[in-house]
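[audit] Reproducing an earlier prediction to check determinism. Same input, same settings, fresh worker. If the tokens differ from the archived copy the diff job will pick it up downstream; this log only records the rerun itself.
[audit] input (402 residues):
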Amino acid sequence: MQLYCKIKLDEQKRKYEEQKKIEEIQDFQKFIESVQSYAEFQKYEEFLSDNDKKEIDDKCIESEEFLKKKQLEKQKKMKQEQKRLEVIRDFDQYINSVQDHTVFQKYEKFLSHNDKEEINVKCLEAKEFLRKHQGNLDTKQINEKRSEFEDFVKSLKDGLEQKYKAHHLEKQRKRENERDEAIGNFQQFIQSVYALEEFAGYRKFLSPDDKKDVDNKCIEMNTFLSTNPETLDIQQIQDKRNEFADFVKSLKDSLKQKYKVYKEKQQEKQNELNKAIMNFQQYIQSVQTFEAFAEFEKFLSSEEKQDVNDRCLRINTFLITNRESLDINQVKEKRLKFENFVASMLKSLKQKSQVKILFITLGDRISITIRCIIDDLSCTYMAFLPSMILSYWIGTGMLHRE
């Protein structure tokens, strides 16, 4: 672990130094560009002769080639160093896998106490070798040491394999029982797929082609299990089951995607419905508080206000009570009828407003007419005032004959 940390620190330090050099190169490249474009000379550019410009271009090209060469050398050196560090890191990780016995996998339980002690000694020796010489070792030296270490591990593995084979013979009968059990479980799985139980919740999304594929795959798997089952081993059965499970998973994923699309569409419809209901309720609120009749509210009678309130309450109750079963068309239809009712009432109120304005206008005109006649006539003609007013209106154009 300490060696790994040191390698990591060295690598971080190397990367920091590399980044610093890259930044220096980038700064130099920018400076070359500014010189090549004459930006460095600013207001003196007009005094540059052709020879000056040629000399500048040649020098810039020379500098760029120098940088490219340095970059290539640096990249090559970086790759070599990176490769060397990777080899050291891989070797260190391999040593760790041997030291914690993970490299022996199924043979680990056959390691004796002496085997474990020898492994520990060999691993410590290899780590000490890397710790002392990692800065001076080249890739070839590291690989030679690793090859020597791997020979030790292989020799140990060969002995463990012999132990494993002996143990394997003892467990052969148990493995046969496990094989029979695996076949039985696999057959049950096939049956659950054939009966579409594995697709519960998504059955309605299965197409005729999907069902045909399921039938064919189940027949294929049952044929595999029923043909010389005694020759099958656990791994073969598991591989075939994995293949079948992948088929089922792929189909189930497809059905889930269809279900997801279906749910998204349902959610979109629900969101549209919720928005329509909310907007409708806001509109009802504006009607119920008479905001919709703001201009003509004073012409509303008590009966009309009560009618408006009753209608708003009925529609709100309808929306709340039937919210779960409503669709967007029902809401739109209900709103259209309500809007027609409001429009009809607004039309009626507007007519009332116009009548009142007419009466006010007529009243003003009557008052003006009477004053004009009184000024022109004596009191003896007051008895003829109504007919005179009418004649006056007609004569002055204030009233037209039909």
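[audit] rerun output stored. Observation attached for the diff report: The two ends are 113 Å apart (CA to CA).
[audit] end
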